[in-house]
Amino acid sequence: MKRRKFIKSAAICSATYGLGRWKKSAKTHALTLSFDDGFKKSFYRIAEIYEEYDLSACFNVIASGHMSSFNAVDKWILPELMGNFEDWNHLKFRGHEVMPHTWEHLNLTKVPITKAKENIDKCLDYFESHLEGYIAEEAVYNFAFNASTPELDAFALQRVRAIRTSGRLILENTRTNAMPTRNSPHRLGCWANGPDFCDEFVDREVNEFLAGPGGWLIINLHGLDEEGWGPLHAGYLDGLLKRLVEIEYLTMLPTGVLLL
Quick one: which of 27, 7, 28, 25 has its CA closest to 17? Predict the structure, then answer.
């Protein structure tokens, strides 16, 4: 494949990807690699790799990850690794999708419901104030740990277009979501693997998906090359995208774009 120069204007990029108006009749499979947390080094590198193939990456960031008050969540999500909204606005301008991934990365199923709802509101309020071009009606709220309940799903859906949570909570006998339509449910299931490198997991899931009848597979990932829980090797991601862009029946778009 001849690699083309990536279009860095967000407006032109939107036109390039059709703002979700992809040829649904021609595409039986949709794949989204959904990168969480907000690792500055990894997200810029992921963006560079995606741009090599004229693709738009799907990034989901912790709203308070750049603040001095943000504490390490575990041994993977460390304050010194996180980017800020200057970074996220820059990546968004380059044509990548940036969506909310909680206020402080709590498992909202393990705190009082009042606190959980306040946490969702704080995250979404901050995005509305600090992410340029943020449109609530087009946003996807990505639950930390992919942990939610029907009550939390319904609460978040009062303010955003869709939520992303564990596939095990909403998918039966399949690992794929239905192809999105205007009237389809917007509780999206995803799959993840860690804490070690998950190249083999992704390869297995993608190959099985491509051999199947179709649908929309969302794989939840984090950083590259030692950053984050269940990271990918950068070289593997590059090779994967190089292979996938040649598949005519497959579309690769961020979650929010596919829902438009």
Answer: 7
